[in-house]
Specification:
The protein has 399 residues and is α+β, with helices and mostly antiparallel strands. It has 14 helices and eleven strands.
């Protein structure tokens, strides 16, 4: 829960020549639901590349599935419930509009997302990929339907209010399993956060499933990403320093674990830049209530995932062996302090309100207004790096 980032919308791996990086600055953009994905917005009146692209997927979606209710939507598409016409199996389908794929990188983003979902399919804690389809206007990604709700909602819905370290360790273990499998396959998720984990069903023993691989990418050994993507509360220091790799996922799980144990974010400020400064400089607080009542093993686990230096941080695979997170390990099976659920409830409410406000604002803008905003962005973005700095705003206001 937190704004997606696109401070520098270019997606690259580090250690490349400066000239190549400079060229890519002008041509690539990432695809998060962010403030502005600048270079994707300009088609100069040309037909969007997505409309001209044949992805090689099956073209008979409507013959195989009956589309149902809307489950959610993002910047580039919608997710619906659907039913297999023959087997009657319920599935989820992500429908992406081809007309919004203006540039080659947008097309590659979709192809990569499908490829990654295929590679990870079969893991018990990853939403299962079933098939991909296309027609002249859309790409359809058919996947497992998860009806058990989001992670934090599930915790807050506990009727007896009994929520323990053991409960937290169980879900963290499943997150680490996902990250470890990703990294084993040369994949970095890059956007691990509570709302990207859903329970398969409402039963108590339902598995937790990782969803939304839209920002995920392949990485080769020794290489680093130099773009800034993810969600502000969960972004790792090395992401902000533009030299990130698989360890950024371990950091994000550390942030989630901190929230699961105390209900608060370890790094917070009113502004995105303020959050980034906290991530880079501040040490998480382990003194304020309820931390004194939380086990030393739990605190040790979180601290080892929130080490600023990724080289000293536990990997996802190493974290799975920590005594606190191991099945039958040190995690206490007694209810956490009542303040944890109270804090968590406030956090969820704040995040939902922010999401609603942002979506409401977006829905009030027509294409002409969006185009005008984009032109204003370009006018203020003096160094053309895809972001607007405080100094650039000051210069405009002083004119």
């Amino acid at each position: 829960m937190g704004a997606c980032l696109s401070r520098n919308p270019n997606k690259r791996q580090g250690d490349d020549k400066d000239k190549q990086i400079a060229q890519e600055e002008d041509t690539k953009t990432k695809n998060p639901e962010s403030k502005v994905a600048k270079s994707k917005g300009k088609s100069n009146g040309a037909v969007p590349l997505g409309k001209l692209t044949k992805f090689g997927y099956s073209t008979n979606f409507d013959e195989k599935y009956q589309k149902g209710k809307l489950l959610g939507h993002g910047q580039f598409g919608y997710t619906y419930a659907a039913t297999d016409i023959v087997t009657k199996e319920k599935v989820a389908v992500k429908i992406i509009e081809k007309k919004k794929m203006l540039l080659p990188i947008a097309v590659e983003d979709v192809k990569r997302e499908v490829k990654i979902m295929k590679a990870l399919s079969g893991h018990e804690n990853v939403v299962q990929f079933y098939d991909a389809f296309e027609d002249d206007d859309h790409v359809y990604i058919v996947m497992e339907l998860c009806e058990g709700g989001e992670l934090l909602d599930r915790i807050l819905a506990k009727k007896d209010k009994r929520y323990s370290e053991k409960d937290a360790a169980k879900v963290v273990r499943q997150m680490l399993n996902v990250a470890a499998r990703c990294h084993l396959n040369g994949i970095v998720h890059r956007d691990l956060k509570p709302e990207n984990f859903l329970f398969k069903e409402r039963s108590e023993d339902s598995p937790l499933k990782a969803t939304d691989f839209g920002l995920s990418d392949y990485i080769t050994p020794g290489k680093r990403f130099t773009d800034v993507v993810g969600s502000a509360y969960y972004v790792a220091p090395e992401v902000l320093r533009r030299r990130s790799g698989p360890q950024s996922d371990a950091w994000s799980i550390g942030v989630i674990t901190y929230i699961l144990l105390c209900g608060r974010r370890p790094f917070w400020d009113k502004t995105e830049d303020g959050i980034f400064k906290e991530v880079l400089k501040k040490k998480p607080d382990f003194r304020e209530k309820p931390w004194p009542s939380i086990s030393p093993s739990a605190k040790d686990f979180v601290k080892k995932l929130l080490i600023k230096d990724p080289r000293a941080r536990l990997t996802a695979a190493q974290a799975l062996s920590h005594p606190w997170v191991r099945e039958g390990g040190d995690a206490r099976d007694i209810p956490l302090d009542i303040s944890v659920l109270s804090n968590m409830r406030k956090f969820v409410k704040y995040s939902r309100l922010k999401q609603i406000a942002l979506k409401a604002l977006a829905s009030t803008l027509n294409q002409e207004e969006i185009s005008h905003l984009r032109d204003q962005f370009d006018a203020i973005d003096m160094d053309k790096n895809g972001t607007i700095t405080l100094e650039e705003i000051r210069q405009v206001l002083s004119i």
